[in-house]
What does this fold into?
Amino acid sequence: MPLTANFAASQTLGEESIITLTDNSTGSDGSVTQRRVYLRKADGTFLVPDGTSTEYIVWAYADTSIDINVLPYDMALQIVVQWLNVSNSILYDKTETSGFTMYNETFNYGLAQMMAGNPVLINDNQFWSNKLKLSELIDSGDEAIALASDLYNAQQCYDMATTLRLKSQYTFNQNS
Amino acid sequence: MAVPTPSEMIPIAQISQYLSAVAINNGGLNGGGHDVTLPQKIRNIRKNLEWMYNLSPSNSSLNQVSQYLYSLCAPFNAKAQVIINHANGGGGTPILNPGGGQYEYTNLVVTFGSESTDINDTAFFTRTVLVDGLMVNTMSVNGQIKTLPTDFTFDAPAGEINYGANHFFTGDIITIPFLRKIS
It folds into this structure.
């Protein structure tokens, strides 16, 4: 039975910088000896962990999943996984486009917790309008990925959301 | 009436959102005294609650956010609960339907491959509990949120989820919050 290459990407609550890839391939091919992962950003460059000298990340073929600690903030990524033989020839490959939004989603949920603890916050026009904007930007980025695999515009949405998060002392009065 | 749990609160908020939108629209100038941004507020906090609930159903912060959302849904939360209990919808006061039409909120957790009908590397699965279910709008596949109709479709009479171009694999954990038909 030939290999049907496939993988899934996910994130875990509380581990915002980590992307977990799981190999869901079915079948088998004895020629496959190695696997590589390319994480292409919206600007066309490749994202790799510190200390990696190649544009790809080696994913040991014996491992069903890999945790890649690589995200400094939310990103839209095109993920390419290649299954190769001993001669470095690509036998199979699979490409997925994903939005990784754990930083901003977790922050957005934290804002809801703040509101639960201090209900009058909803009457703070700046707080509330910025919370709405944050939610819309995350959703818009997700839609750009889901509907059009549009890395460029998704990243712009995520970046604007990230700016709201990083400037929270101004946007959400978080130092008051 | 007891304060709903987070899983019960999600459909209450979904229904309160449209009840408040209709009340504002029918209220004329200034929304009949209702906060005209209430549907937006309910939706925003409900999405936060759903996000955390799908990732971590036992997270300790859920109750606090859920109770806040419940207060935000006032005065529509009570009617929303009645609508869910009787699943009649529509205008007017919901009535008991002795011929059936009773639903309850359920958070279905499926481990793909646990039923003999699950075929590895296919785009669909069926569960009896999903038959004639309502409000199947989102599902979580291994922690990733998928929405209908962009990511999947639902055939209510057959209780079938179809993942479109994607496939399910043995061991996938699928979570679906929805209204299960109980009679």
